Task: structure prediction
Amino acid sequence: MRNTSSSGPVLSEIKGAVHKELRHDSAHKHVSGEAVYIDDMPEPKDLLHIYVAMSEKAHARVTAMDLSAVRKARGVALVISAEDIPGHNDVSPFAGDDPLFADGLVEYIGQPIFAVAATSIAAARAAASLAAVDYDELSALTTIDAAMAAESAIEPAQTMAQGDARAALEKAKYRLKGSFRIGGQDHFYLEGQIAFAAPQEDGDVHVFSSTQHPSEVQHLVAHVLGKPTNAVTVEVRRMGGGFGGKETHPAMFAAMAALVAVKTGRPAKLRLDRDDDMIMTGKRHDFRYGYDIGYDDDGRITGAAIELASRCGRSTDLSPAINDRAMFHADNCYYLGDIEITSHRLKTHTASNTAFRGFGGPQGMLGIEHVIEQIAHALGKDPIDVRRANLYGTDGRNTTPFGMVVEDNIAPELIDMLAESAGYQARRLAIREFNKTSPYLKKGIALTPVKFGISFTTTHLNQAGALVHVYADGSVHLNHGGTEMGQGLFVKVAQVVAEEFQIDVDHIKITATTTAKVPNTSATAASSGSDLNGMAALDAARRIKARLVDFAANKYDCPKDRVTFRNNNVYVENREIPFAQLTREAYLGRVSLSSTGFYKTPKIHYDRSKHKGRPFLYFCYGAAVSEVTVDTLTGEYKVERVDILHDTGRSLNPAIDKGQIEGGFIQGMGWLTTEELVYDESGRLRTHAPSTYKIPACSDRPEQFNIELYAKGRNVEATIHRSKAVGEPPFMLANSVFLALADAVCAASDYKVRVMMNAPATPEEVLKAVVTAKGKARG
Amino acid sequence: MTETVRFLLDGEYYELTNPDPTTTVLNFLRYELARTGTKEGCAEGDCGACTVVLGELIDGRIRCRAVNACILFVPTLDGKELITVESLRAKDGTLHPVQQALVDTHGSQCGFCTPGFVMSLYALYEEGGARGRAHINDALAGNLCRCTGYGPIVEAGLRMEEMRLPVDAGVLKDRVDALRSLKRHDTLKLSVKDKLTGTHKYYFAPVTIDGLADISLAYPDATYLAGGTDVGLWVTKQHRELAQIIYIGDVEELKHIQVTDRSVEIGAGASFTDAIDVLARYYGDMGEIIRRIGSVQIRNSGTLGGNIANGSPIGDSMPALIAAGATLTLRMGSLERTMPLEDYFIDYGKQDLQPGEFVARISVPLPPEHSRYRAYKVSKRFDQDISAVCACFGFEIKAGVMEGARIAYGGMTATPKRAAMAERALVGRAWTMDNMEAAVAALAEDFAPISDMRASADYRMMAAQNLLRKAFIELDAEAETRLVGDRELGHA
Result:
């Protein structure tokens, strides 16, 4: 039985009601190859293909750039560089420091310096190679350490504090100090960056962009063209994956395509190949995590000084908010007493790092989990006991370092439930027994929780719009500002509308996101897609529904509260009217059946100057247990078993949510294990294709993988049907894999030494840790 | 000579006269036929978004194999059936069981990799279906998905069986007849002028080994093309022009694999897939090493002969074969010469191959009595990755004494190479831990590895040494040492 507290009594079933498993709306098109991505659109006969030429130097003045041979090459229609931009040479989200093309100064290897539009991509690429570019090289900062030493930053260091951390540390019974490194991560969306621009009348342009943020692309394309926003329309039906990598970066490619289209009057396509994509675009920030922790005999943390330093790359991009989120999640589920978190946002001569699922949260969270395991080892305790000793309380010990009271804490319950269902404690003991008799293969286990705050921490972004039309025949056209990148947003929002109108979801047409229908939208990011757009669509549907109720009550002369919608019908007192009949009648009765909808998240506020406030409407929670086996001769390992318990509130679509949990976990596992970004000394990325950059493959999935949704889940906040966001939080469940590996390494020293291993734990990193642990154990 | 490439697609004959020989099947499908279901994810055969299936008539039966269309050149389709994601739905629009299973298990999210998974599973379906999860893992090792975490896709691989369709004998017969009619008995010769550069490109696909020998002499500067899993990337990644190509994949004699009373003889054109079972029968670990070369798609296209001929320092088959004492036979004109495989590799990118000469076959001796063979591959990821170190050991141990040792490494230097010093430290001595440690120490004299994106020099050396220890441990002790492959071997 469903209890739809927000929409009245128990209702009979429509197809695609909320809280029901429903397949992705495009699934049948995905499997048949019929789902259209931008590169699949029919190519117009006069299409131009754009190749982007990149800087060969990490930091240099461009003293000369002779493009005359490029212009003369066969098939070339246009060559564009900084001087050809009619508007502003900037595609940054807000800081104004992302030139579309380098103008005299290059700041990373891969920075666009000019672009060639030609009749084929081969012609464009061949022409670009004819350019003569002279550089005057400057010293380049390509690592966190180098940038720290040079005090090179994209903004001043930020501090978030509660109480007196220094005094607390002085008083602490035990201290633990050190640092470790956390690697970055390439998004590796399967569909690379792409934009297709079609010229329109009056010099306007219609851009198809694979973007999570059509409004920003629209704004920036107009900015580059020197035109008002209304001259540009941006449309996206679906992306072949985004993961944050298509939040700010697509504007660059859309602007180049638009520029070519407007200047030549011909349609233009810019599709990066995999290598260029990986070299040119930013990634997850790599971090150095420094800690000074005070704790007592129970392992309870009494004071903490945490120093975060991240590589932001050559520009600001979204790095301030990303690093803020690293601070917001430096506590994870724990009350850390008097605490001071310092965060350095370093400018380097590498691609500008950007949003990636978790948005800085994973790095902050991994640090404290690593430290907690270290405390447990120092005290000879089971880490789960140290975790429990530090969990946020319900009364007291419940204020985060940013001053927000944790009101919805279910972490303790999730941990208990999972420890029980996964047999954590018994397995931990069994593993210790196994390790006694297995000299070369060592097993490890770890249980880690996740608490992740939901809302954009930049408060004004927490708004969304929708547009719903009901046609006279009862069919519905649904549009909203959210974008579909595979996460199932479109089907969830369609379910919300189906539920509200009480019609089968098949009657609802899901349509491409376009700035022409819903303006001024926020990125589909921060896990907020269904929270925001679901509510906006609900608002639109309710407005139309109210008009239908008014109309029916008037026409059939009954009180409004006797008009109900149920199972594809409208009941007016005892009269059963098919939905489509009522809409026909309403049309004839001259009722508007179209409405916009709008939503803004309540309760949130944040003072960034003090790093205090309530940046989040609520928190998502989950927990995972991972078990691994390590080959201590080579450092190779296998993730053998994973158990997950995750809270999605009252899930809008449990099948879609499970997919997000499973996929997010594996992506997180990749970040912490095999995905290694290797740069050479000149700042050149050496791992820019799947041959060298290894995301998890099918066999890396744990053989036993149990995923449960928290059955009692219900958002305490009035979110869309009391569901919770799901895109990012499960990513961090993979911390358990990393810590299980660290546990197995510790086992190689007979549990005498625990090493603060760096991430990613490649076989090389693991073997290095094994050698260190064994060496120290011998003394 | 014929100048027309002919293949079958959706029951129709396609005839292409003098197509550009280095146009990839992927680009042909997407931009010439507007069949855009097949996607480009990497253009290097590593992500599988471009997976298509090739049907070939083998002993009267159509054998279906998944391959990467992104590095497959169009002329190599000659005589085959091309099957793409658009081919699978029934005429009435009903999804194929593979497709339906993926829908039912929520196996797609963003959907971009999905057509590739569909085709890998389809090849599995056509070839008898999945023998459990490990088999599916292997069948899908060449398909990357960034969204799902693979679970639902593996589930679909199991579930597709429940919906298996009856075979339509009439349709099948038509396909077999059509393929039979496409069989070519003379050399395919393409000649085309490149639109962009104006250079003339030639492509030859002889059908006999004598024909191959003649063309090789006539065009001594030509590039040999076998599976294209390396040469394809020269075009798609390095954007190189290949003016003359000699394709050996249509030479039937080069595909033969024969077991004699002394050796396994493998033609240079035999795919990894075809070679794996017979080699695994005699050298268990060699089977696992080859299973971990690339992916199903790569092993279906790629050949042992090609892996050897190009002499990559990171090709895994070479150390595995060298440790087994394999020899290589080269042919020029009507003359053949045979050498120990390790002698073929002179330096990085330089092999003992004369212009006009080609690799004819590889001979792998059957394991002698008292032989103990071990081979290991270390990489960041188990499947579809390139070795940081590949270590292979062929020992002959009689009465506790090492009578012969062949120790070969990949990834440690510019060529696949034997560890002469380490071998010397072992041969003629007792099989003891002390002597093994002496050999381990000697490896530091044999090799001075480099640091690159796959591993540091220190790690390479440490892993190389530990793998020799591991071989010792496995042949001596009852301890578990294996994470993947046949874990039982660790106790042997």
Summary: The longest helix of chain A spans residues 529-555. The two ends of chain A are 63 Å apart (CA to CA). The domain at 403-460+614-779 of chain A is CATH 3.30.365.10 (Aldehyde Oxidoreductase; domain 4).
